[in-house]
Amino acid sequence: MGVLTGKTAIVTGASRGIGKTIAMDLAASGAKIIAVDVLQDQLIETQKEFNAKDFQYFPYVCDVGDYDKVEEFHKKVKQDHGSIDILVNNAGITRDGLIMRMKKADWDSVIHVNLTGVFNLCKIFSRMLMKKAGIIVNISSVIGVMGNAGQVNYSASKAGVIGITKSLAKELSKKGVRVNAVAPGYIQTAMTDKLSDEVKEEMLKNIPLGKLGAPEDISKVVSFLAGPDSSYMTGQVLIVDGGMCI
Ligand code: NAP
């Protein structure tokens, strides 16, 4: 028995990277995982890893930024699982570029996934969460706090996630729903693997702890926020960045 035994958690972007590790950690604490991602094949591959550990992992294909698809997904969740207790909005993308060169499509796609995606899931699942005094954990970024050249789309989306978190915490607290965010620094995943060695070297100079983070550094904090040990916390943004933002 873990602290989340009997709880059902949606994790978006759960087939790889930080989302997969968050799902693994929540499952290790006993939660049933409803995994959302855009690629079926990747979800099925990841499901095998969960099955091997006897963890419950139910994969669903859904573009979080598409309101109608999230409504369809909500219906399936109701049919298949009844309700949920925890929502982790993790799915996110980058389309970097200096503003002079950034295409409108790069702005739109990042806002679609990173910001509209969080709005869609929070809005459509809010009724379920209110009935269960549920928990929302949103994944923001230090870039939403401190900004970064070449990432106006990403930083705007992640600052927006902080705004959603704080507003919803105030809105849903009367129903006992807690809403918090985690703002990771640079974490070793496919998202940061595509950065050049030069950019990585530069980043490391600004991280007092002198290394990139691991997905587990984020998932442990998410598990804390999704569990009973943080029961008096809401509307908070926990920065997990090796000291970058100090
Ligand atoms: P990742 O390895 O690229 O994983 C992101 C996941 O989200 C992928 O599985 C991706 O699917 C999925 N996804 C993308 N668009 C989606 C959509 N429209 N609907 C549903 N799922 C979608 O990224 P990560 O590094 O693990 O990042 C996870 C979260 O942490 C993101 O919100 C990111 O912004 C945030 N974050 C990451 C870092 C970092 O350094 N890595 C730092 C700060 C914040 P595909 O596999 O099909 O692309």
Unreliable spans: none
Percent strand equals 5-15%
Count of helices?
Answer: 9
Classify the secondary structure makeup into a structural class.
Answer: alpha/beta
Q: Please state the average pLDDT score.
A: 97
Order of helices and strands: EHEHEHEHEHHEHHHE
CATH fold description: Rossmann fold
CATH class: Alpha Beta
Give the beta-strand count.
Answer: 7
So, CATH architecture? 3-Layer(aba) Sandwich
End-to-end distance, in Å?
38 Å
CATH superfamily: NAD(P)-binding Rossmann-like Domain
The spatial strand order of the largest sheet comes to 3-2-1-4-5-6-7
In helices, the fraction of residues equals: 40-55%
Please state the CA-atom Rg, rounded to the nearest Å: 17 Å
- What small ligands are held by the chains? NADP nicotinamide-adenine-dinucleotide phosphate
When the domains are counted, the total is 1
Query: Major sheet: size, sense and barrel closure?
Result: 7 strands, parallel
Q: Which geometry do the CA atoms define?
A: globular
Indicate the topology.
Elements: E1 8-12, H1 17-28, E2 32-37, H2 40-52, E3 57-61, H3 67-81, E4 86-89, H4 104-131, E5 135-139, H5 143-146, H6 152-172, E6 178-184, H7 190-193, H8 197-205, H9 215-226, E7 237-240
Parallel strand pairs: 1-2, 1-4, 2-3, 4-5, 5-6, 6-7
Helix pairs in contact: 1-9, 3-4, 4-6
This protein binds NADP nicotinamide-adenine-dinucleotide phosphate.
NADP nicotinamide-adenine-dinucleotide phosphate is lined by residues 12-13, 15-19, 36-39, 42, 63-65, 90-93, 113, 117, 139, 141, 184, 186-187, 189-192.
